[in-house]
Amino acid sequence: MTDASEDASDIEKLYEFGERLNEAKDKSQNVKDYEGIIAATRGSVKAKQLAAQLIPRFFKFFPNLSSQAVYAHIDLCEDQELGVRVQAIRGLPLFCKDTPEYVSKIVDILAQLLTAENVERDAVHKALMSLLRQDVKASLTALFIKHIQSVDETDENLREKVLSFIRDKVFPLKAELLKPQEEMERHITDLIKKSLHDVTGAEFKMFMDFLKSLSIFGEKAPPERIQELIEIIEGQADLDAQFNVSDGDHIDRLLSCLYMALPFFMRGASNSKFMNYVNKHIIPVFEKLPEERKLELLKNLAESSPYTSPQDSRQILPSVVQLLKKYMPWRKTGEETNFTYVECLLYTFHHLAHKAPNATNSLCGYKIVTGQPSDRLGEDFSEQYKDFTERLSNIEELSRATMKKLTQGMAEHNKAMAAAKSDEAKDKIKTQKQNATTGLRTCNNILAMTQQLHSKSPLFIGDRRVNLSWKEPVKPSLPSTATASGAKRTTSAANGSGNTVSKRARGGGSSGAHNQLVNRALEGLSYGGRSGGGQRGRGRGWGGRGRGRGYR
Length: 552
Description:
Layout: H1 2-23, H2 31-39, H3 45-57, H4 66-77, H5 82-91, H6 103-112, H7 118-134, H8 136-149, H9 156-170, H10 174-177, H11 181-193, H12 201-213, H13 223-237, H14 248-266, H15 272-282, H16 291-304, H17 310-327, H18 339-355, H19 359-364, H20 382-419, H21 423-450, H22 499-505, H23 516-521
Helix pairs in contact: 1-2, 1-3, 3-4, 3-5, 4-5, 5-7, 6-7, 6-8, 7-8, 8-11, 13-14, 14-16, 15-17, 16-18, 17-18, 18-21, 20-21, 20-22
């Protein structure tokens, strides 16, 4: 009974303190009343909840008690009672209503409370959003500098909670929060750039996806803005570092960043630094790369090649031709042929040679006249021409034979699908059919590209007529049923792939499933495409933060 009466007495005193402060014309004279409110933070649960409302309400009138008031309120945020903690959290933004200089400090306190759960966490989110709407610049600066950029001083779990809050609550409301737009978009860009020295692949991708969505980097952005994004990716790829083929983290980061950079190459940014790094450091040790990384590198190289400058094309062509010859043998050797490697390298060769055609005179024995001394028309490169065209003929023969087997195998797959009982068996056959279809497209692309190269003065492919086998097939445009820009492309057969391949390969030979050589030779095809969200994670799951701590 005594405790209850004391509790009631404490509550009554708090109401009296509050009433006197409300009525006072010069509230700063009522120091004892405010000190009484602060002291109530050590009282009963109800007294603490009431104090949590009154402390921020009269905070601005007692600057000499500011530290004491804030620390007492923080103690309430860590109270054993959930109701006290939630009330105290809700009151934190009120400290900044008339004293905006406290925004950074209160944001810092709230960020540290993001590890809470359920009702308490929701209260923290609402309080932070209130401060972001009051002063977005100071709030974002506090979140980034104190909890994302200060890696060594930040608890890892807390850092992840702050990143999740920014991703889920701040980024989706950028149009509402980032005002004035250009100034605040530039500010958050600078904050992000300073936070990238120690991030995982998933975090880097999250930040880059957000930056791409900002208006300052939109469709109407000048070239220097797009180049700024490329330079951010280049920095993450460590293109100034000495390459060590045994450093799997660097290999993963490099390839992931190169893939991430492709859309910006398409928008006019330079790929020079990436391409020259690959040419100087990666291609010379290509055989030492992990097998799956070889395929990623060649796909990236192929997709980057249309955007390579003439000068860089001339520098890179010798390495590409040398690698192409390795995977396009002079005669049948009995060894497996990796058709996807050949497709990638032929595509790269065509696009680089289109930019620097006479460089192929000495490399492949062509006689392309540009009127420049680099034509080297007075020299005899007939052996190079003979060697290169014989390799072309051999890969064409291998491709046609493989297409024939793949087409026969498709018939077997159709029979097997009709007989399959379980979903597991059907899924397996469906995957085999998809791989066979991609294999047919790969071989058909190879034939489309090699046929151009038998001439003494070939016309190199410098446009998009060849659709790489791992890319989604391009739907032919029909005037009467033209789709809107950006619609999903689902139909087959640009480049004569799809049905065209099947017709060419039909007839002759005995029926039967793929032989072991074809299965193994097309092994790389099972890695699939890279468009869409369900592919192997480029830029996702690059492991722990920090150089050398796993980037995938």
